Amino acid sequence: MKEIALHILDVVQNSVRAGATEISIIIIEDTPNNLLKITIEDDGKGMSKNLVSSVKNPFVTSRTLRKVGLGIPLLNQLCEECAGGLSVESTLGKGTKLIATMQYNHIDRLPIGDMPSTMTTLILSKPEIEYIYQHSYNDHAFLFDTKQIKTMLEGVPIHDLEIIKWIGNYLQENIEEIHQESI
Hints:
Elements: H1 4-17, E1 22-30, E2 35-42, H2 49-54, H3 71-81, E3 85-91, E4 95-103, H4 115-125, E5 130-137, E6 140-145, H5 146-153, H6 161-181
Helix pairs in contact: 1-3, 1-4, 4-6
């Protein structure tokens, strides 16, 4: 994968397959501490302790169509290559929390990439799921919550193409703004 946003998309698709109704994505860019931290948390079906202990192995998957699961193992490899790590916590029936950390300025760290496209793709594919996206860059942050957006829309579907276009632009502007404020 060429950007972290694609890793995030892949991991969130696991949450969708696990029956999550709410998925939280938090990106923290902490340059003074040379840290990039990504947290993805869901309220899906969760995993057994046995599955959690082996989820970083590419030959362990809960999928039935194929016997290889590369999303988490590839993200784990990227974290390790960038002087970081990956932790997965899960409780059956309650959900899963994944935390990926990387050294921010590591030469092998991929760019975060196109998070607006990642978020709009997720919303288009499963508009009934509530997505919370929080992004911070040093002391500046913003929060995007589909529950709030749906309330403001007063019945207009969040996956309406004009709304999706607006969401993409809104996310892009806010990501640019938090990076500009730190200059």
